[in-house]
């Protein structure tokens, strides 16, 4: 039972953090730091994908932990060092809003 309560508390904390993020502010950061590769609506830029010789996922359908990918990188994508602090959560909130 105690483990269940701990997991519930962690889930609620994560949900609270997600709601604290600002998708509108995230769009501004996304437009500056992400849009050139991932497109204005999360659809990958085919020219960049071809140049980098990678297959980029459509962010609208991606289940990746966006905050982790932004801060640590993934595959050939390096960490985006220009996006830090609350901006990481804001970008993640914006990307998640693309799924709607």
Task: Explain what the structure shows.
α5 packs across α6 (86-97). The protein has a single domain (22-97), classed as Cytochrome c-like domain (Cytochrome Bc1 Complex, Chain D, domain 2, Orthogonal Bundle), CATH 1.10.760. It is mainly α and 100 residues long. The model has no long low-confidence stretch (mean pLDDT 87). It contains six helices and no strands. It is globular and about 50 Å long.
Layout: helices, strands, pairs:
Layout: H1 2-20, H2 23-33, H3 35-38, H4 46-52, H5 66-72, H6 86-97
What would a concise description of this structure say?
Helices cover 60% and strands 0% of the residues.
What are the defining features of this structure?
100 residues; mainly alpha; Cytochrome Bc1 Complex, Chain D, domain 2; 6 helices
Number of DSSP strand runs: 0
Beta fraction: under 5%
Find the CATH superfamily. Answer: Cytochrome c-like domain
Sheet/helix structural class: mainly alpha
Shape: globular
Instruction: Enter the CATH topology name.
Output: Cytochrome Bc1 Complex, Chain D, domain 2
Poorly predicted sequence stretches spanning 5 or more consecutive residues: none
In N-to-C order, the SSE pattern is HHHHHH
| Cα-based radius of gyration, to the nearest Å | 15 Å
